[in-house]
Amino acid sequence: MKLFIDTANLKEIEEASHWPFVCGVTTNPSLIAKEGLSQKEIIEHIARLIDGPISAEVTAEDYDGMLAQAHELYKIKPSNIVIKLPMTIPGLQTAKRLYEEHIPTNVTLCFSQSQALLAMESHATYISPFLGRLDDNGWDSARLIEDIVTLKKNYGYDTKIIAASIRSVRHVEEAAHLGSDVATVPYKVLKKLISHPLTDSGLATFAVDAAKTAKITK
Ligand code: G3P
Predict the structure, then answer these.
(1) CB pairs under 8 A, 24+ apart, for 106-111?
(2) Which residue is closest in CA terms to ligand 1's atom 9?
(3) How does pLDDT run across 173-218, given as a tens digit for each residue?
(4) Catalytic: 152?
(5) Global pTM?
């Protein structure tokens, strides 16, 4: 499963750009709003840091507005920009049109199997089910991933699943276990993926023992 970083924070992205397991970035209007720069500035900067898919979200609500914004965002770096679109009829119309123009898309705010089906039928490149927000509200996010993976298998859709709204290591592990193509993960959770107390204690013991060996001179 591929891992993207889910942030618009340039310091976090700069650090993650040196990690071999991070190969893309997703942003949204709320993440951008935290940074105090324009969306264009942020996306341009990210495009200099990461050579992988970078999701940039449109904010217009109508088809013409979305399409115009999509073209502007795509121009920033055509080799990497993925246009993030809302789960609405105009959003899916835009996904279909951008597919015809060979511009990749990521349909966001997916909370049900039927929404995923519509995005796949509209030729979205990616679909983003929101795990954390589902679980926060008493639904079962693992079940949704499982259902979307089944849809893909049943009909051979090319759309890739991005497990989004990740809150924990468990969400990432579950998404991988169930066959999600990608998980987009906040910086803090990415850091937690590599840590384990037994790794830490094992390393501490190895360091002590290595120091003992280093004292032995032949
Ligand atoms: O990028 C979209 C998604 O990952 C948002 O996550 O934490 O705001 O539910 P969150």
Answers:
(1) 106/26, 106/55, 106/82, 106/162, 108/28, 108/55, 108/57, 108/84, 108/164, 111/139, 111/144
(2) 165
(3) 999 999 999 999 999 999 999 999 999 999 999 999 999 998 887 6
(4) no
(5) 0.95
